[in-house]
Amino acid sequence: MSAADTIFALSSGQPPAAIGIIRISGSKASHALRALSGSVPDERRARLAKLTDPASGDLLDTALVLWFPGPGSASGEDLAEIHCHGGRAVVRALETVLEDMDGLRRAEPGEFTRRAFTHGRMDLAEAEGLSDLLFAETELQRRSAIQAAGGALSRKVDDWQNSILRLSAMVEAELDFSDEDDVTPAQLSVVQSAADELASEMKNMLDRPRAEKLREGVRVVLGGPPNSGKSTLLNALVEREAAIVSPIAGTTRDVIEVPIAIKGIPFLFIDTAGVRDEGAEEIERIGIDRARQQFDAADLILWLGPEGGGPKASNLVEIASRQDHAEYQPKSSDVLSVSPIAGTGMDALVTLLVDRAKDIVPHGDEISVNKRQADHLSEAQVSLHQISEEQDYLIIAEQLRLARAALDALTGKASTEDMLDGLFGKFCIGK
């Protein structure tokens, strides 16, 4: 398959639906539109047209057709849209006719967006934001993703690039023309101060929570000995019977993961096997080992066992989850007392979880970076930071070049095919 092929796909939801939108992108898009509707409409103006099979002359549908000539289209190349009725038979008939046309083929997942990237309609950071937007399920995810898809990070990177280019020009002037009277030599302290300021800005962004946390959710692990009420509390938090509740010790033997959004924040609640040192048979011991692994990976641990008996971790919250039993009354005011069955204390627990999560997930109005972006941003930050103690202009010029290269990799100006395949392959067909 070639990038020069003209591609088509259904870009709206799967039929049946009120409307189906079929996109055609490539050099033969106008030919396809003319073959179906008899002519190409004025650009960016919807026109009602009868769509017919060019081979048999059969009427396929009456639809709206639109024409977007490249490079000013979503894909950066000639693009047509057909807004037809969204029945399965209608969509199937149109797709069959398009597939029979010479030079047209069905699009691969994410191929429209990849062509937009290739033609400079968006950079890699914007494409990653669009991917996050497509999979957004909470309001916080939507707000964060729409910033990235709209180019907030890309604009910030452009500002940094322009600043670094100005510093590079000053350094090059010092290296190449310092002996000429008409060029003002770059002052080392000015370059170092500006580079350090840029490095500090990048460090501030790197110190923010990662964008992946919005997609993965805040990992809240419920731990404690057998029959301490973990599964009961999990079911109360997610408001459904997600875990089996039984008085038999060792009922939960494996990890149970339940994603849920609370007040717009994504959480991943994880129920684990009861932790005990004695009395567990082989299968249960495997579950206990997995529980301890989950403690290490948790953002928050809700410990329902004896006070002071949980993992030694700063992110641990001790819970007395059986407030309705006198023997489970907490001894310390630091222990949160709740009763999942009666509902007592549950509002306080939810408030605590949401408050803690605000320090773990990015704020929706802040620019946040994912791991790939953070790796490249860290490379740029380190290169700029090293300039502050450097006296050699040749080395400073090289550090500035490395910083520019790292930012180019962040936005995709320098990227590998494997990485692009991995990103765009996650998109749906038609996007």
From TrEMBL:
Residues 219-306 form the G domain. Its main location: cytoplasm. Its EC number is 3.6.-.-. Mg(2+) binds at S231, T252. The keyword Metal-binding applies. It is found in: Cytoplasm. InterPro entries: G_TrmE, GTP-bd, GTP-bd_TrmE_N, GTPase_MnmE, MnmE_dom2, MnmE_helical, P-loop_NTPase, Small_GTP-bd. K(+) binds at N227, S246, I248, T251. Residues 124-428 form the MnmE helical domain. Residues 6-121 form the GTP-binding protein TrmE N-terminal domain. It is an enzyme of class 3 (hydrolase). Signal peptide: none annotated. Binds 1 potassium ion per subunit. Belongs to the TRAFAC class TrmE-Era-EngA-EngB-Septin-like GTPase superfamily. TrmE GTPase family. Exhibits a very high intrinsic GTPase hydrolysis rate. Involved in the addition of a carboxymethylaminomethyl (cmnm) group at the wobble position (U34) of certain tRNAs, forming tRNA-cmnm(5)s(2)U34. This is tRNA modification GTPase MnmE. The gene is mnmE.
